[in-house]
Amino acid sequence: MxxxxxxxxxxDRIATITINRPDQLNSWNDQVATEVYDAMQxxxxxxxxxxxxxxxxxxxxxxxxxxxxxxxDPHKLMTKLPRPFDMRKRPDWQTRCSYYPAIPKPVIAMxxxxxxxxxxxxxxxxxxxxxxxxxxxxxxxxxxxxxxxxGMAWILERHVGHxxxxxxxxxxxxxxxIEAQRMGLVNRAIPAEQLVEETYAYARDLAENCSxxxxxxxxxxxxxxxxxxxHEAVMSAGLDMPIANQGPDYxxxxxxxxxxxxxxxxxxxx
Length: 270
Hints:
Layout: E1 6-11, E2 14-19, H1 30-45, E3 51-56, E4 60-62, H2 74-79, E5 107-111, E6 114-116, H3 118-124, E7 128-132, E8 136-138, H4 152-160, H5 162-171, E9 175-176, H6 177-183, E10 188-190, H7 195-209, H8 212-224, H9 230-245, H10 248-258
Parallel strand pairs: 2-3, 3-5, 4-6, 5-7, 6-8, 7-10
Antiparallel strand pairs: 1-2, 8-9
């Protein structure tokens, strides 16, 4: 796909996907949705990519929906899938905003500025969130006469708890990155001038020192937790343990530790 609304780059085994509509504060529309989805799938299928960073150009991550795309039939938006449905995969991870858990690589949302409404939903379904300390974050919906869209109530409650989720949804008040970190909405709040450096340092550490297969399996395990009992989680983990214990990644992990060198993990068989 030839991208018009995003930028896609791969360097040092890190794919960077950037919403590139800075004049519109990277507002979300159908074209952005299609291109981001395609880029995520492309990065997920590329064995040369081990980590994905998702961000926005200019002063915002994504300042919500593009007002020019409002007014469509909401029932059609909810029932019309934006891509083919795969019956072999969990349906929860095939909706318009919730497909990030199915990407077999860690996805880091780098919130460089305003993160609003649907932009926040996409960030919440990523695996890790680093935000600038002064980034403005808001659910926005109640102040527009809307409700929590595309599963935001479910994913927000999982990150910040029931009381904080209600606060953020009912009031739609604006918070900064520092408060978002205190709530658990983001993993780290970082001074704006250090955000890129620290985000990519973390991404490079994952790409260089962590087994791609281990990261894929553990990501899958964690995103399955909401649907499992403790027993089911234990049994599921038990199925993979003998495979991991006898696999090349474990052997390389032990060898690199004993030899005091960086590991050279094989590419994951996605």
